[in-house]
Amino acid sequence: MRFDDVVVTGQMLQERLKGERHLEVSPQTKLTPSALDYVRAHGVQVTRGQVAAPTAAAPAKPTRREFKGIFCPNIVIFDADGRVNYAEMERYVEWLIQAGLHGLYPNGSTGEFVRLSWEERQDVVKLICSVNQGRIPVLAGASEANLRDVLRMAEFYAGIGVDAISLVPPYYYKISNQSLFEYFAEIAQQSPLDILLYNIPQFTQEIPLDLMERLLPYERIFGTKDSSRDLPRLINTMHRLRPQRPDYVVLVGCEEILFPSVLMGASGGTIATSGIIPEVIVEIYQRAMAGDLARGRELQYRVLDLINLMLLGVNFPEGFKTGVAVRGFDVGPPRQTMSAPESEHLLKLEAQIGCILADMGYSVRGPRACPVTQLAPIVGR
After folding, report:
1. By C-alpha distance, which of 238, 228, 227 is closest to 269?
2. What would the mean pLDDT of 194-205 be, rounded to a whole number?
3. What span, in angstroms and rounded, lies between the C-alpha atoms of 177 and 160?
4. CB 162 within 8 A of CB 147
5. How far apart are alpha carbons 343 and 245 in whole angstroms?
């Protein structure tokens, strides 16, 4: 049997080989790790033939979905036993979509992917794709501890409706820049999904701009998310890479600089605060795109106190999960062990977040003890 597919997976072999022991593939075909496992386990002989003569017009290359606007790196909600609460997660994800977000971003830093098992990471993304039903793009984190597992996860995502994957450098062990280049290049050649490079030097090694420039010829790598909290770095990324790839996507991962980043040309942002006040974060993006400086600045400054409360002085991402709780969701207990003083601090934090949200114009239940600011509401509710 001959396969002329660009990428062949183990599932494809299982469904289509039907017990045959010889497989011919085209010179360009990539066998994924699961496909290699299948041929070894079933004694399939693989040969590479000549390029097949076309009998009809080749199918058009799938159109890449637009990665612009606000993508929400959603939290993961746990039940009282510390397991993923899929029912409450489904309610939360639908609420985010209805709030007008432009995309979803499961298994990011805010989603605590390193605290989830392999199966939980898969299940969370499967749930999100099931709820979403293709309405908005899904960018899923596929950062695993080694290249083989990254490709296995990307292969799984490709089968459930994910649009692209996000990748940080390999974590824990630092590698040379040359090895880092080889790592991303190899994944770009084998991944069934497009790739967004994720620069977050707080947690992994930095991806140098020189290295990103070297990776531009790989079409699978279509952009970057930058969470360095470094506006000059973000601007230089666009300045250096877009003359060569005008469609190169640049998303900012730091809400404090969302408005100026979009004004300077960023494609949008993956913004954790969009999981708490999606309407406001989406409007910041829209005001920047419209060049409405007065309203955009007002909104950008109004969200700073909320961001600082959720980000500083508490284990990440528990402050953001507390914000989600204030919006009416049962986020459950933290998965990471927390001391008694930290738990008490979260209770105080919940009341403070409630104050800020009420000041913005949201209807918030629960205890609040806040100074009167006399600021005008910024949302119509």
Report:
1. 227
2. 95
3. 33
4. no
5. 47
Cβ-count burial 154-175 (b if 16+ within 10 Å, e if not): bbbbbeebbbbbbbbbbeeeee
Smallest CA-to-CA distance from 258 within 223, 224, 234, 222 is with 234
> If we measure between CA atoms, which residue out of 379, 328, 330, 323 comes closest to residue 346?
323
b/e per residue 255-282 (b: at least 16 CB within 10 A): bbbbbbbbebebbbbbbbbbbbbbbbbb
CB 187, CB 151: distance < 8 Å = yes
Span 15-29, average pLDDT:
82
Residue range 69-291 in CATH 3.20.20.70:
yes
Residue range 42-51, pLDDT digits in tens: 889 898 876 5
Q: What is the pLDDT of residue 376?
A: 87
Per-residue model confidence as pLDDT tens digits over 232-272:
999 999 999 999 999 999 999 999 999 999 999 999 999 99
Q: Give the pTM.
A: 0.83
Confidence of residue 114 (pLDDT cuts 50, 70, 90): very high
Other C-beta atoms within 10 Å of 24: how many? Answer: 16
| SS3 of residue 370 by DSSP | coil
On whether the CB atoms of residues 142 and 103 are closer than 8 A, the answer is: no
Sheet holding 2-3, edge to edge: 2-3, 22-25, 45-48
Residue 140 φ/ψ, nearest 5 degrees: -110, 135
Going from N- to C-terminal start, the domains of the chain cover: 2-48, 69-291
DSSP letter string, 148-162: HHHHHHHHHHHTTT-
pLDDT of residue 52: 46
Question: Which residue bears the tokens 């639908």?
Answer: 94
Return the half-sphere exposure (C-beta side, CA atoms, 13 A cut-off) of residue 255: 31
Separation CA 137–CA 148 (nearest Å): 25
Residue type for position 302: R
Q: What is the pLDDT of residue 53?
A: 47
- Residue 247, H or E segment: none
Note whether 34 and 155 are within 8 A (CB).
yes
